[in-house]
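Recap from last week: sequence in, structure out.
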Amino acid sequence: MQIPARVRFLSLLHAAVQESTLTKLTLGKPRGADPTLRNVFVRPVTLKSGPHLTFVWRHVTRDITKNLPPAAALTQLDALIGADFLDAHLFTTAETVHLECQPDGMARLKVIAAPGDAVLPTQPSPDHDQPKQHLISAAAPWLRDLGVTNDRGQPREGMASKFRQIQKFTELLGHLIAEAPLPPDRPLRVVDMGCGKGYLTFAVASLLGERANILGVERRSDLVEKCNAVAGKHGFSHLQFSVGEIGTGDPGPMDILIALHACDTATDDALAQGLKSGATLLVVSPCCQKELRAQLSAPPVLAEALRHGIFQERQAEFVTDALRAQLLEWAGCRTKVFEFISTEHTAKNLMISAIRSHAPGDPARAARLQEFAAYYGIRHQQLATVLGFPLVP
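Predicted structure tokens:
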């Protein structure tokens, strides 16, 4: 008799905890009594009292963290999986296991061996002071062919910061994908607009494997040609690059939109294209926010400070990205704005993520957005224009 999928998943989970091969567990698709609860993230830690599992209960407006001993943690997880949460991803040192449950009790299980490039640690590192493990192996051959690492699997001179950026982006994207309500029953479609030399596009392809079909869009044909050659050489059949400009053409439907360091209003054009194409998750890292600087007409109390050019520049960056976040929320997304990577590695370190979560066009959000624009004297902005949102009532 075939063992039910949920029972098999729980057996694998218990074994991973007992054998110390668990790296993380994510629970999604909630259907419990608390409407604010979105996800639960679990990972092993070692406290003074011994091994524990730390739970992060992610709600709409807050996170709650709890540490439980392994036996108590497994008892709670047994009750949650398939009941309060219909979706579970188990990550171990050897494999990734996905359990998808239905409200009627039916379930299916998918087991994927850890891909060659997305190296999981041979032993989990639960201690808070342990060095961080890399999701992308420095020995990945595509890193070498893109000029990031040398033949010994070490970052080339001047590329250490880029290597750290690749690792950090991969980690962040993995968390965002686990949090977003993406379709589990088909390959995801990911579009990276303005992908440049393709470093992060390849990282996405390595992270997701055959779970996604990925398109990198870049206006420079020589970079597109090189990236396609590297993808073909290393068997990335689910990855391709094409020549194109951000905001022009039609890349087709997408689940995930990525646009990193797209200059000035190109970030707005990419966000608008992602929303138009139905993306559930949008991830951008803005650059060169110049559009609003000439419009800024801050209150008199700020006039003395803003006579300094550097403060004007930073003010323009703040207002631009704060406006973008609010426009995305008006358009039906839940947003986060956070530091992508330390300013030690890049000055362009802000990241905005948006996950579709509610109906667009809320009048209260619109009123607050217009008040914000009026405070700074902003009358037009590219994303607002493309979305058809009137900044001036």
